[in-house]
Amino acid sequence: MSESAPQPLRIGILGAARITGRALVAPARSGGHRLVAVAARDRSRAEAFAAAHGVERTHGSYAELLADPEVEVVYNPLANGLHGPWNLAALAAGKHVLTEKPSASNAVEAGEVREAAAKSGTVFMEAFHYLFHPVTRRLHELLASGELGELRHAEAMVAIPAPGPDDPRWSLPLAGGALMDLGCYGLHALRTLAPWAGGAPRPVAARAGERAGGVAAAAYGGKGTGWGRAPAAAGASTPRTSPAGTLAPDRGRPPPPRPRTTTPPWALQQPPSDRTMRRRRQTSAPYSGGFSASSTSTRPPSSSARTPASQTAAAA
Predict the structure, then answer these.
(1) Which parts of 7-57 fold into alpha helices (H)?
(2) Which end of the chain is more exposed for a tag (fewer CB within 10 A), N or C?
(3) pLDDT tens-digit readout, 60-87
(4) Torsion sign over Cα 113, 116, 118, 121
(5) What is the model's pTM?
(6) Which domains does the chain have, with CATH numbers?
Protein backbone atom coordinates (compact mmCIF):
# COMPACT_ATOMS: atom_id res chain seq x y z
CA MET A 1 0.00 0.00 0.00
CA SER A 2 1.40 3.37 -0.92
CA GLU A 3 1.90 6.05 1.70
CA SER A 4 -0.56 8.90 1.90
CA ALA A 5 0.40 12.15 0.21
CA PRO A 6 2.81 14.29 2.25
CA GLN A 7 1.18 17.06 4.21
CA PRO A 8 2.49 20.63 3.98
CA LEU A 9 4.47 21.95 6.90
CA ARG A 10 2.69 24.54 9.02
CA ILE A 11 5.24 27.27 9.65
CA GLY A 12 5.25 30.12 12.16
CA ILE A 13 7.70 33.03 11.82
CA LEU A 14 9.27 34.92 14.72
CA GLY A 15 9.68 38.55 13.68
CA ALA A 16 9.34 40.36 10.39
CA ALA A 17 13.01 40.28 9.41
CA ARG A 18 14.03 41.23 5.87
CA ILE A 19 15.90 37.96 5.35
CA THR A 20 12.71 35.93 5.71
CA GLY A 21 11.39 36.67 2.24
CA ARG A 22 14.28 35.00 0.45
CA ALA A 23 15.38 32.57 3.14
CA LEU A 24 11.99 31.10 4.02
CA VAL A 25 8.97 32.47 2.16
CA ALA A 26 10.13 31.66 -1.37
CA PRO A 27 11.36 28.12 -0.55
CA ALA A 28 8.25 27.37 1.49
CA ARG A 29 5.99 28.45 -1.34
CA SER A 30 7.92 26.40 -3.88
CA GLY A 31 7.56 23.35 -1.65
CA GLY A 32 3.85 23.80 -1.11
CA HIS A 33 4.11 24.54 2.61
CA ARG A 34 1.88 26.84 4.64
CA LEU A 35 2.91 30.09 6.29
CA VAL A 36 0.48 29.88 9.15
CA ALA A 37 1.46 32.83 11.32
CA VAL A 38 3.94 35.63 11.92
CA ALA A 39 4.56 37.52 15.16
CA ALA A 40 6.39 40.79 15.70
CA ARG A 41 7.05 43.13 18.61
CA ASP A 42 5.05 45.73 16.70
CA ARG A 43 1.89 44.03 15.48
CA SER A 44 1.50 46.49 12.62
CA ARG A 45 4.81 45.22 11.22
CA ALA A 46 3.53 41.66 11.46
CA GLU A 47 0.35 42.65 9.63
CA ALA A 48 2.32 44.39 6.87
CA PHE A 49 4.60 41.35 6.52
CA ALA A 50 1.63 38.98 6.39
CA ALA A 51 -0.07 41.04 3.71
CA ALA A 52 3.10 41.20 1.61
CA HIS A 53 3.91 37.49 1.84
CA GLY A 54 0.54 35.80 2.15
CA VAL A 55 0.88 34.67 5.77
CA GLU A 56 -2.45 33.40 7.07
CA ARG A 57 -2.58 35.33 10.37
CA THR A 58 -0.60 37.44 12.81
CA HIS A 59 0.17 37.32 16.51
CA GLY A 60 1.04 40.18 18.82
CA SER A 61 3.91 38.40 20.57
CA TYR A 62 6.37 35.58 20.02
CA ALA A 63 4.91 33.73 22.99
CA GLU A 64 1.46 33.87 21.42
CA LEU A 65 2.84 32.32 18.23
CA LEU A 66 4.50 29.48 20.17
CA ALA A 67 1.17 28.78 21.86
CA ASP A 68 -0.60 28.50 18.49
CA PRO A 69 -1.51 24.80 18.13
CA GLU A 70 -1.56 24.99 14.33
CA VAL A 71 2.09 26.08 14.15
CA GLU A 72 4.35 23.03 14.05
CA VAL A 73 7.59 24.54 12.69
CA VAL A 74 9.12 27.77 13.99
CA TYR A 75 11.53 29.85 11.91
CA ASN A 76 13.78 32.12 14.01
CA PRO A 77 15.43 35.00 12.11
CA LEU A 78 15.65 37.36 15.10
CA ALA A 79 18.77 39.27 16.13
CA ASN A 80 21.63 36.92 17.07
CA GLY A 81 21.27 37.59 20.78
CA LEU A 82 17.67 36.39 20.69
CA HIS A 83 18.33 33.13 18.86
CA GLY A 84 19.23 31.06 21.90
CA PRO A 85 16.38 32.12 24.23
CA TRP A 86 13.68 31.77 21.59
CA ASN A 87 15.11 28.53 20.22
CA LEU A 88 14.86 27.13 23.73
CA ALA A 89 11.31 28.44 24.05
CA ALA A 90 10.24 26.94 20.73
CA LEU A 91 11.73 23.56 21.63
CA ALA A 92 10.00 23.69 25.02
CA ALA A 93 6.76 24.36 23.16
CA GLY A 94 7.22 21.13 21.21
CA LYS A 95 7.92 22.84 17.88
CA HIS A 96 10.37 21.90 15.15
CA VAL A 97 12.90 24.72 14.76
CA LEU A 98 14.73 26.20 11.79
CA THR A 99 16.99 28.91 13.19
CA GLU A 100 19.24 31.40 11.52
CA LYS A 101 22.85 31.11 12.54
CA PRO A 102 24.29 31.27 15.10
CA SER A 103 21.90 29.15 17.14
CA ALA A 104 23.13 30.73 20.39
CA SER A 105 25.21 33.65 21.68
CA ASN A 106 27.93 31.76 23.55
CA ALA A 107 29.14 28.31 24.51
CA VAL A 108 26.97 28.00 27.61
CA GLU A 109 23.82 28.95 25.74
CA ALA A 110 24.77 26.67 22.84
CA GLY A 111 25.06 23.78 25.28
CA GLU A 112 21.60 24.49 26.61
CA VAL A 113 20.14 24.59 23.09
CA ARG A 114 21.85 21.37 22.13
CA GLU A 115 20.59 19.59 25.25
CA ALA A 116 17.05 20.88 24.73
CA ALA A 117 17.08 19.81 21.08
CA ALA A 118 18.27 16.32 22.00
CA LYS A 119 15.45 15.93 24.52
CA SER A 120 12.69 17.53 22.48
CA GLY A 121 11.97 14.75 20.00
CA THR A 122 11.58 17.43 17.34
CA VAL A 123 13.82 18.57 14.49
CA PHE A 124 16.30 21.37 15.20
CA MET A 125 18.41 22.79 12.35
CA GLU A 126 20.60 25.82 11.74
CA ALA A 127 19.98 27.48 8.38
CA PHE A 128 23.35 26.77 6.77
CA HIS A 129 21.89 26.52 3.29
CA TYR A 130 25.26 26.09 1.55
CA LEU A 131 25.50 22.60 3.03
CA PHE A 132 22.80 21.40 0.62
CA HIS A 133 24.21 23.13 -2.44
CA PRO A 134 25.21 20.74 -5.26
CA VAL A 135 28.79 22.06 -5.20
CA THR A 136 29.17 21.24 -1.51
CA ARG A 137 27.62 17.84 -1.97
CA ARG A 138 29.95 17.08 -4.86
CA LEU A 139 32.96 18.19 -2.82
CA HIS A 140 32.07 15.82 -0.01
CA GLU A 141 31.40 12.98 -2.45
CA LEU A 142 34.84 13.45 -3.99
CA LEU A 143 36.47 13.41 -0.58
CA ALA A 144 34.51 10.35 0.52
CA SER A 145 35.38 8.38 -2.61
CA GLY A 146 39.04 9.36 -2.66
CA GLU A 147 38.68 10.02 -6.39
CA LEU A 148 41.08 12.97 -6.21
CA GLY A 149 43.25 11.61 -3.44
CA GLU A 150 43.58 12.82 0.15
CA LEU A 151 42.66 16.27 1.35
CA ARG A 152 45.81 18.38 1.67
CA HIS A 153 44.69 22.00 2.01
CA ALA A 154 41.46 24.02 2.11
CA GLU A 155 40.54 27.65 2.66
CA ALA A 156 37.21 29.39 3.26
CA MET A 157 36.51 33.10 2.87
CA VAL A 158 33.37 35.16 3.37
CA ALA A 159 33.25 38.94 2.86
CA ILE A 160 30.49 41.49 2.32
CA PRO A 161 30.21 45.29 2.33
CA ALA A 162 30.16 46.57 5.90
CA PRO A 163 26.69 47.02 7.45
CA GLY A 164 25.60 50.50 8.46
CA PRO A 165 26.83 51.88 11.79
CA ASP A 166 23.48 51.31 13.51
CA ASP A 167 23.04 47.76 12.22
CA PRO A 168 22.43 45.28 15.11
CA ARG A 169 25.17 43.07 13.65
CA TRP A 170 27.63 45.51 15.24
CA SER A 171 26.03 45.16 18.67
CA LEU A 172 27.99 43.17 21.24
CA PRO A 173 24.94 42.65 23.53
CA LEU A 174 23.11 41.28 20.49
CA ALA A 175 25.95 38.82 19.78
CA GLY A 176 27.16 40.74 16.74
CA GLY A 177 30.56 40.84 15.09
CA ALA A 178 32.32 39.35 12.10
CA LEU A 179 32.67 35.82 13.43
CA MET A 180 29.04 35.54 14.54
CA ASP A 181 27.64 37.09 11.36
CA LEU A 182 29.77 35.62 8.57
CA GLY A 183 32.74 33.80 10.05
CA CYS A 184 30.51 31.00 11.24
CA TYR A 185 30.00 30.02 7.59
CA GLY A 186 33.71 29.55 6.93
CA LEU A 187 34.20 27.81 10.24
CA HIS A 188 31.23 25.53 9.68
CA ALA A 189 32.34 24.69 6.14
CA LEU A 190 35.82 23.73 7.24
CA ARG A 191 34.59 21.77 10.24
CA THR A 192 32.46 19.60 7.93
CA LEU A 193 35.72 18.47 6.33
CA ALA A 194 36.90 16.91 9.59
CA PRO A 195 36.05 13.33 8.50
CA TRP A 196 38.67 13.68 5.77
CA ALA A 197 41.03 16.00 7.66
CA GLY A 198 42.00 13.64 10.43
CA GLY A 199 39.47 14.64 13.07
CA ALA A 200 38.05 17.61 14.92
CA PRO A 201 39.90 20.93 14.60
CA ARG A 202 42.19 22.43 17.21
CA PRO A 203 42.73 26.13 16.38
CA VAL A 204 46.23 27.25 17.28
CA ALA A 205 46.22 30.87 16.09
CA ALA A 206 43.79 33.63 15.14
CA ARG A 207 43.63 37.41 14.91
CA ALA A 208 40.88 40.00 14.60
CA GLY A 209 40.35 43.69 14.05
CA GLU A 210 38.19 45.31 16.72
CA ARG A 211 35.55 47.92 16.00
CA ALA A 212 34.20 50.53 18.41
CA GLY A 213 31.73 48.78 20.68
CA GLY A 214 33.85 45.73 21.30
CA VAL A 215 32.92 43.57 18.31
CA ALA A 216 35.27 42.13 15.72
CA ALA A 217 35.15 43.98 12.41
CA ALA A 218 37.21 41.24 10.78
CA ALA A 219 38.34 37.85 11.99
CA TYR A 220 41.21 36.03 10.34
CA GLY A 221 41.70 32.31 10.78
CA GLY A 222 45.22 31.18 11.50
CA LYS A 223 46.55 27.67 11.13
CA GLY A 224 44.75 24.83 12.78
CA THR A 225 45.91 21.35 13.65
CA GLY A 226 44.20 18.08 14.42
CA TRP A 227 44.73 14.42 13.62
CA GLY A 228 46.71 15.30 10.58
CA ARG A 229 44.74 18.30 9.36
CA ALA A 230 42.19 20.71 10.78
CA PRO A 231 40.61 24.12 10.20
CA ALA A 232 40.57 27.37 12.09
CA ALA A 233 37.91 30.05 12.43
CA ALA A 234 37.21 32.47 9.61
CA GLY A 235 35.00 35.40 8.67
CA ALA A 236 34.68 39.07 7.91
CA SER A 237 32.16 41.86 7.82
CA THR A 238 34.26 44.55 6.19
CA PRO A 239 34.87 45.30 2.51
CA ARG A 240 38.19 44.73 0.78
CA THR A 241 39.15 42.11 3.34
CA SER A 242 40.06 38.55 2.50
CA PRO A 243 40.03 36.57 5.74
CA ALA A 244 40.43 32.86 5.45
CA GLY A 245 40.35 29.77 7.55
CA THR A 246 42.93 27.20 6.50
CA LEU A 247 43.08 23.47 6.56
CA ALA A 248 46.65 22.25 6.18
CA PRO A 249 48.78 19.21 6.95
CA ASP A 250 50.16 18.77 10.44
CA ARG A 251 53.63 17.45 9.73
CA GLY A 252 54.16 16.58 13.36
CA ARG A 253 52.09 13.42 13.30
CA PRO A 254 50.78 11.08 10.64
CA PRO A 255 47.06 11.11 9.97
CA PRO A 256 45.16 7.98 11.01
CA PRO A 257 43.73 5.76 8.29
CA ARG A 258 40.34 6.96 7.03
CA PRO A 259 37.75 4.80 5.30
CA ARG A 260 36.86 5.75 1.75
CA THR A 261 33.17 5.35 2.51
CA THR A 262 32.89 8.23 4.98
CA THR A 263 29.34 9.58 4.95
CA PRO A 264 29.26 13.20 3.71
CA PRO A 265 28.21 15.58 6.52
CA TRP A 266 25.25 16.88 4.52
CA ALA A 267 23.89 13.34 4.34
CA LEU A 268 23.73 13.30 8.14
CA GLN A 269 21.76 16.56 8.23
CA GLN A 270 18.98 15.82 5.75
CA PRO A 271 15.56 17.20 6.70
CA PRO A 272 13.27 14.52 8.12
CA SER A 273 11.14 12.54 5.73
CA ASP A 274 7.42 13.25 5.38
CA ARG A 275 6.77 9.97 7.15
CA THR A 276 8.91 11.03 10.11
CA MET A 277 7.20 14.42 10.30
CA ARG A 278 3.76 12.79 10.27
CA ARG A 279 4.78 10.44 13.07
CA ARG A 280 6.06 13.35 15.14
CA ARG A 281 2.86 15.28 14.48
CA GLN A 282 0.84 12.34 15.79
CA THR A 283 2.95 11.77 18.91
CA SER A 284 3.77 15.35 19.93
CA ALA A 285 2.05 16.36 23.15
CA PRO A 286 0.06 19.61 23.09
CA TYR A 287 1.97 22.60 24.38
CA SER A 288 1.26 23.34 28.03
CA GLY A 289 4.09 25.68 28.89
CA GLY A 290 3.95 28.87 30.86
CA PHE A 291 3.53 31.44 28.08
CA SER A 292 0.63 33.84 28.21
CA ALA A 293 -1.16 34.47 24.93
CA SER A 294 -1.35 38.13 25.89
CA SER A 295 2.36 38.52 26.63
CA THR A 296 4.17 41.36 24.83
CA SER A 297 7.71 40.56 26.01
CA THR A 298 10.41 39.84 23.43
CA ARG A 299 12.06 37.41 25.86
CA PRO A 300 10.84 34.00 27.01
CA PRO A 301 10.08 34.20 30.75
CA SER A 302 12.63 31.46 31.51
CA SER A 303 15.38 33.40 29.73
CA SER A 304 14.86 36.85 31.21
CA ALA A 305 17.56 36.42 33.84
CA ARG A 306 20.35 35.93 31.32
CA THR A 307 19.12 37.95 28.33
CA PRO A 308 20.33 41.58 28.32
CA ALA A 309 17.48 44.07 28.24
CA SER A 310 19.15 45.84 25.36
CA GLN A 311 18.53 42.80 23.21
CA THR A 312 14.87 43.68 23.01
CA ALA A 313 15.59 46.96 21.24
CA ALA A 314 16.47 45.32 17.93
CA ALA A 315 13.93 42.53 18.10
CA ALA A 316 11.74 42.37 15.05
Answers:
(1) 20, 26-30, 43-53
(2) N
(3) 999 999 999 999 999 999 999 999 999 9
(4) negative
(5) 0.73
(6) 10-123+271-314 (3.40.50.720), 135-267 (no CATH)
